[in-house]
Design a protein that fits this description.
Elements: E1 6-12, H1 15-33, E2 39-42, H2 47-53, H3 59-67, E3 70-75, H4 90-100, E4 105-111, H5 124-127, E5 131-137, E6 145-154, E7 157-163, H6 168-183, E8 188-193, H7 199-215, E9 220-225, H8 226-235, E10 242-245, H9 247-260, E11 268-272, E12 283-287, H10 304-316, H11 321-336, H12 354-368
Parallel strand pairs: 1-2, 1-3, 3-12, 5-10, 8-9, 8-10
Antiparallel strand pairs: 4-5, 4-11, 6-7, 11-12
Helix pairs in contact: 1-10, 1-12, 6-7, 8-9, 10-11, 11-12
The chain binds nicotinamide-adenine-dinucleotide.
């Protein structure tokens, strides 16, 4: 089987370049052993792009992202760019990519590998085998709503305003992604809002309910208030399958769910847009962690979040379920054999380097695929 899927690789800054290099090795392994080749191009983004090209993402890179089948991003940022003007800062590149690719659906799986169940702050029996997906609306809601700003009311008194707003179509399109994803998992969606105290919450619930009735009544749906959801995530997280929620609540709840798994170095993510007329759905895949300036350049970073982000790309952008599962299986086996990077090791364990972890995954790919 061969594939000429066009992937734009944006390693970025700090550990972004180190963890991306391990994914490039896996792509090479795939082309040698699975006859799957990708059409890969690599460009600068973030602080690295600012230093060389004067902006955190150039127009040419943005255009290439739009022309690609999927974008794979490492991480951006670092203290050396903290004083750069806001619209040229490394993080501005992420916002531009999300906005221009219209990536409205952010998928954050929280999966606990058995071998790491003791790394969580929750009791192992609560989270062993956990596999939930937080689906966050990413391009609307209170982070984008207008009016926003600070205005003067009278002497010594100002008022800050943010506006939470959602339209029918914005809720429907994220709801559809949630129901579709649930169908490929445990068929259960929990829709989260504050219908008890917010107009947008009531509206969100109404739209999700009618979408469910109209198109997805074979999927189990329940509704939950966001504050209760935060409690339930730490009380009994295994009750959830797919949680679909707005931008603000998703921001908070996905970080909460992430911590159930123990380490930032283990968390992949995907951001998806709408399917266009040619059937293409734009997608950007990146680990949840940042550029980790404290360990950058030291060969200490955990590459597994980046590797699992690549596995998500195979699954959601290219429908390569078998290859995606193969990589996830290799990661699971490597952990079961006791390999740990600095961030996931217990006090009495020895840490392996980024490169050693990457090489161990490749070795495991050989074993799992019988090479
Ligand atoms: P961070 O995620 O970079 O690091 C937080 C802590 O987790 C650090 O101690 C780091 O060493 C550790 N860590 C993170 N990823 C790890 C990995 N793969 N393996 C081992 N340890 C890991 O967050 P931060 O320190 O708040 O931010 C650093 C920079 O990254 C900032 O400039 C920030 O703006 C940026 N950032 C970028 C993204 C992104 O590119 N999507 C996300 C978050 C933060």
């Amino acid at each position: 089987m061969s594939s000429n899927k066009k992937i734009l690789v944006l390693p970025g800054d700090g550990i972004g370049t180190e963890v991306m290099s391990e994914v490039l090795n896996i792509m090479e392994w795939m082309s040698k052993n699975k006859s799957v080749s990708f059409d890969v191009s690599e460009r600068l983004v973030g602080g690295a792009a600012f230093d060389r090209e004067g902006n955190s993402i150039s127009d040419a890179t943005m255009q290439e992202a739009l022309d690609s089948d999927a974008v794979l991003l490492g991480a951006v940022g670092g203290p050396q760019w903290d004083s750069v003007e806001r619209d040229k800062r490394p993080e501005a590149a992420l916002l531009r990519l999300r906005k221009e690719m219209d990536l409205f659906a952010n998928l954050r799986p929280a999966i606990v590998f058995d071998a790491l169940a003791n790394s969580s702050s929750l009791k192992a029996e609560l989270i062993k085998g956990l596999n939930i997906l937080i689906l966050r609306e990413l391009t609307s809601g209170v982070y984008y709503g207008l009016p926003r700003g600070v205005e003067k009311i009278k002497d010594q008194e100002e008022k800050a305003i943010d506006t939470q707003s959602y339209t029918t179509s914005e809720i429907e399109r994220i709801g559809k992604v949630g129901f579709d994803l649930a169908k490929k998992r445990s068929n259960k969606v929990t829709s989260v809002e504050k219908a008890n105290v917010m107009e947008t919450g009531m509206f969100w619930r109404k739209i999700i309910t009618s979408l469910h009735k109209r198109e997805f009544n074979d999927v189990e749906l329940n509704h939950m208030y966001a504050d209760n959801c935060a409690m339930q995530l730490v009380r009994y997280p295994k009750q959830f399958d797919v949680i679909v929620t707005d931008n603000l609540f998703g921001d908070i709840l996905s970080d909460c769910a992430a911590m159930l798994t123990g380490s930032l170095g283990m968390l992949p993510s995907a951001s998806l847009g709408s399917v266009d007329v040619s059937g293409k759905r734009p997608g950007m895949y990146e680990p949840v962690h940042g550029s980790a300036p404290d360990i950058a350049g030291q060969n200490k970073a955990n590459p597994l979040a980046m590797i699992m982000s690549f596995a998500m790309m195979l699954r959601y952008s290219f429908d390569m379920l078998e290859d995606s599962t193969l990589i996830e299986k290799a990661v699971q086996n490597v952990l079961s054999k006791g390999l740990r990077t600095l961030d996931i090791k217990q006090d009495n364990e020895k840490a392996v380097s980024t490169k050693e972890m990457g090489a161990a995954v490749i070795e495991e790919l050989n074993i799992v695929s019988g090479k």
